[in-house]
Each structure stands twice: as structure tokens, then as C-alpha cells.
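F.,

This is the one I mentioned.
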């Protein structure tokens, strides 16, 4: 059976070496190369032997994970990016998903979950950690599989759609309010109405709904 080639881009050498050793211990996976940052990663890419998966640190010098993931999406869309981060803040998750990442994990996860993340990418094409997004992402994915037609029947008015699209950016709620010429309280009302109407609980859930229903594009 052909091994899955994995590349690593992370400026923390000790952590990167540890991940590389862990990957090498998995019989189905192979470490293709390691890179210190996005520029180093791109320089090491061989068009004749591309990685199947890239473990992408978000915070790197010279060229960070966001920019490198966007570059991959444009130039090698078949390569799956698994984002690595120390933090589970919503803005990083939203931004990496928009850049094209197929998964997002924390650097302190257990080896067994790390293996599960790799396997999920290979089998399903995506992996969303429960630690990062809670039970919401699983619920959204289940809706897409089992209740997709019903979700499409939900009708959003023009202002709700405008708010939803802006919620998929890095703008704060105050910035969204200013952009829509509305008060912060009114914006909170739009958010809460969408939560109730779409059966969601967080901004990440709104972004996933917008992505999966073609309201915004990665």
C-alpha cells in the first residue's frame, strides 16, 4: 500500500522533529520533508513528488501559515493542509478555513488524536477537532449529510445575508455594525436570530454554514 506523504512547516524545531518522529512511527505515513517557514516550504516543493498532507504552523516568520495555505490553495489545491496552533481562538480558525485548511488541531493534542486527524484527512478530506470547535462542527457536518435539503429551505433576508457574509471575515462585531450602519445591539440581534433560525451556537458555526451552503467561498 502506498504511503501517505506528509510535509511539515513549523519554525519550532523541537516540536517539528517530535511530530516528524511520530509520523515516521505510523506505518501508513511518510515524512517527505520539513520546512522552517512558508518560503522554505515552497522552495522545497518538488512538482514531481508533492505531499498529500501538510502540517502547517500558523505563526511562522517570513511567510506564515495563512499566506502559505492560501498559496497552496491557488497552486496545489489537492494538497490537504492540517493547521497547527497553540490557540483555539475563533478568528484563527475562521481565517485558516477561508485560506483553505482542511483541518485545525492544537499542538498539545494526544498522539492518538493526531493519528485520527491524519486518517480523517485521508478518508474524508477534512478534520475538525472537537477541542477547537466543540460539538458544533460535528452537528453542522451531520446536517449536511442527513438534512441538507431541509437546511436549504431556510430563507435569509438581504440584511441577514449581509451580516452572515461579514461574519465570515475577520471583522469584529463593532466593525460589522459600523459597516452596516447599525448599532451593536442590532447586530447582536441579527446574530442571535441566525443562531436560532439555523440551530447554531457560535460564529464558527455561522461560517461553516455559509461555506457549506455556497454563501461564501473559500
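My design for it:
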Amino acid at each position: 500500500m502506498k504511503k501517505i506523504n506528509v510535509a511539515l512547516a513549523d519554525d519550532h524545531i523541537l516540536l517539528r522533529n517530535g511530530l516528524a518522529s511520530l509520523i515516521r512511527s505510523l506505518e501508513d505515513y511518510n515524512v517527505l520533508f520539513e520546512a522552517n517557514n512558508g518560503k522554505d516550504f515552497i522552495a522545497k516543493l518538488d512538482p514531481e513528488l508533492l505531499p498529500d498532507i501538510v502540517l502547517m504552523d500558523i505563526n511562522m516568520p517570513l511567510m506564515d501559515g495563512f499566506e502559505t495555505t492560501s498559496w497552496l490553495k491557488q497552486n496545489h489545491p489537492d494538497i490537504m493542509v492540517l493547521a497547527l496552533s497553540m490557540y483555539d481562538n475563533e478568528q484563527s480558525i475562521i481565517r485558516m478555513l477561508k485560506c483553505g485548511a482542511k483541518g485545525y488541531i492544537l499542538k498539545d493534542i494526544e498522539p492518538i488524536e493526531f493519528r485520527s486527524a491524519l486518517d480523517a484527512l485521508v478518508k474524508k478530506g477534512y478534520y475538525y477537532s472537537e477541542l477547537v470547535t466543540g460539538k458544533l462542527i460535528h452537528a453542522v457536518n451531520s446536517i449536511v449529510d442527513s438534512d441538507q435539503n431541509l437546511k436549504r429551505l431556510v430563507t435569509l433576508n438581504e440584511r441577514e445575508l449581509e451580516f452572515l457574509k461579514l461574519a465570515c471575515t475577520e471583522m469584529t462585531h463593532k466593525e460589522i455594525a459600523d459597516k452596516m450602519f447599525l448599532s451593536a445591539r442590532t447586530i447582536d440581534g441579527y446574530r442571535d436570530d441566525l443562531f436560532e433560525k439555523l440551530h447554531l451556537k457560535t460564529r464558527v458555526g455561522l461560517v461553516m454554514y455559509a461555506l457549506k451552503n455556497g454563501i461564501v467561498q473559500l
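The radius of gyration is 19 Å.

Talk soon.
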